[in-house]
Specification:
By secondary structure, this protein is an alpha/beta fold. The chain is built from 9 helices and 15 strands. It has helices at 12-20, 38-48, 59-65, 77-89, 104-117, 131-142, 182-193, 292-306, 314-333; strands spanning 3-8, 28-34, 55-56, 70-73, 93-96, 121-123, 148-156, 197-205, 217-224, 229-235, 248-253, 256-261, 270-275, 281-282, 337-338. It is globular and about 65 Å long.
Length: 339
């Protein structure tokens, strides 16, 4: 069964979603594109071979003309809530990019609206859908190495090469690291550990050579309810060797250690385990045909078909969102904060 879907937000990332994911998946049919900017719609027509009759300036206009079961929201953050709300009120299931909403309270309102309408509301936390993530999560669930005491997580990229003239939109983003990037890592912490954060102490800064307007580097100590402490360091302007997009993970457990990395295309995921007193073992990873956004979309479609809440539902994502905002609040206040 093919799910009819309207996509709202046809900027660069939105068009990439359509071309790389939607148009390559036989289980979904993109029936309309929506963007308030005519230029974005024109580019969608040219790059994606979308007819002009399937392009609309508003979601309301698209809903008046085409039938669909779901709406994909790939707009900028300020539009996430109004677009998702309009879709839910129209009786449509919603898959929304992260961050989910500009505030936790607005996200909570959407979660309640979806529940009232018996609709699926899912956040595309696409970093969950990789083999290393699943393997490490299962190792921890099975207790093979005992409880996790400390996690050291590093993310490094050098996204600092464009001219420092204000023309590069990435440099102007609000909280380019903690909100635009680290939310992936915050979600993975919760998902892999199976624990919830209780306390955050975060510091952020902008190195002298940074072209970003707001802080591009941060470090945080995050305590979880299972007594695990995560030492997190991230940077968009690090000259050190780059990590995979999911970061480099070093997990210290009662019975040994785990090192892993994921989303390091074109390199494959990697997981190594060293039980106490034994040699390091490289874990053979299973085939994982639907990774990244393909995995996220598949989980969304399965949730629509089954009527079950997906693992990365809006309700589940509230705590990821809360962790992100708490890290930002801690950095701005220069104080540790309890969740």
């Amino acid at each position: 069964m093919t799910t009819q879907l309207i996509q709202v937000g046809m900027g660069g990332w939105g068009r990439n979603w359509a071309k790389s994911v939607l148009q390559t998946d036989q289980n979904v049919h993109l029936v309309a594109c929506v963007d308030m900017e005519p230029t974005m719609l024109q580019m969608a027509q040219q790059e994606l071979n979308i007819p002009a009759t399937a392009c609309f300036p508003t979601l309301a206009a698209a809903l008046n003309e085409v039938d669909c079961e779901a709406v994909l929201v790939t707009t900028t953050l300020p539009a996430h809530v109004p677009v998702a709300r309009a879709a839910l009120e129209a009786g449509k299931h919603v898959l929304v990019e992260k961050p989910f909403a500009p505030t936790v309270s607005e996200a909570e309102q959407l979660v309640e609206l979806a529940a009232q309408r018996n609709l699926r509301l899912m956040v595309s936390q696409n970093y969950r859908y990789f083999p290393a993530v699943e393997v490490v999560r299962n190792i921890l669930r099975e207790g093979k190495l005992g409880p996790v005491g400390t996690v050291n997580l590093d993310f490094r990229r050098y996204s600092n090469t464009a001219p420092r003239d204000g023309s590069h939109l990435h440099y102007k983003l609000w909280q380019p690291l903690l909100a635009d990037m680290s939310i992936h890592h915050f979600d993975l912490m919760r998902f892999v550990l199976g624990q919830e954060p209780t306390r955050v102490f975060c510091q952020e800064w902008n190195p002298a050579w940074s072209n970003f307007t707001e802080p591009a580097s941060a470090a945080a100590i995050i305590t979880f309810d299972g007594s695990t402490v995560v030492n997190y360091r991230g940077s968009w302007v690090s000259p050190a060797p780059k990590t995979g997009w999911s970061g480099e993970w070093h997990m210290e457990c009662a019975g040994g250690e785990i090192e892993w990395t994921s989303r390091n295309m074109p390199e494959p995921d990697s997981v190594t385990v060293r039980p106490l007193g034994k040699r390091t073992q490289r874990i053979k990873l299973p085939d994982y045909p639907l990774t990244d956004r393909h995995g996220s979309l598949n989980a969304f479609l399965q949730a629509i078909t089954s009527g079950q809440e997906p693992e990365s539902s809006g309700r589940n994502n509230l705590k990821t969102l809360a962790l992100m905002f708490t890290a930002i609040e801690s950095a701005l206040s220069e104080k540790p904060i309890n969740l």
